[in-house]
Amino acid sequence: MSQRGMINNAENLLTELHTIEESQMTLQFLKSTITNLTEIVKEQQAMIDHQAGRIQGFEALMQDSKNEVYALSKRVLDLERYSRKLCLIFDSVDVSNDGGLSSALHIMQSALKMHIGPQDIAACHPLTNGECVPVIVKFIYHYHRDLAWDRKSSLRFQMNSHQRPIYIRECLAPIDRDIQA
Question: Does the global pTM surpass 0.85?
Fold first, then answer.
């Protein structure tokens, strides 16, 4: 082999060594980059797992809260029904200065043939403003409330001073009124 051939071989070998050295440096760089990325992914996965656990906890808490709201809503409805149990609404009652008490008593005594006095009424007041309005009457005794309710058909032809029919309806809780409507 000539000297020129040997020089070319040496130069080629040197170029290949540089290429291999650069490849090894590139591989080292890639290896360290992949290692760093793997660590970052592991940290992010741990954070995701932690957040997923927190979300599941919040979902369980939210479901418990929904159940509690439902239970409280049911209790409120039961209380509303109970508080209205002794009440009736007399519609189209002539209201005087006493909030309709005398008119309601007059209707019960004359039309419904009940022996009832103001001492048997816990509360009586109009539900709206005006002369001829619905009046809510809360009885003290179940007997009087039930008697008025049972005899409501006696009011079929009773008219107030404005020639409007007088009638009795139950005092329902708001949700029950919505259902009835």
Answer: no
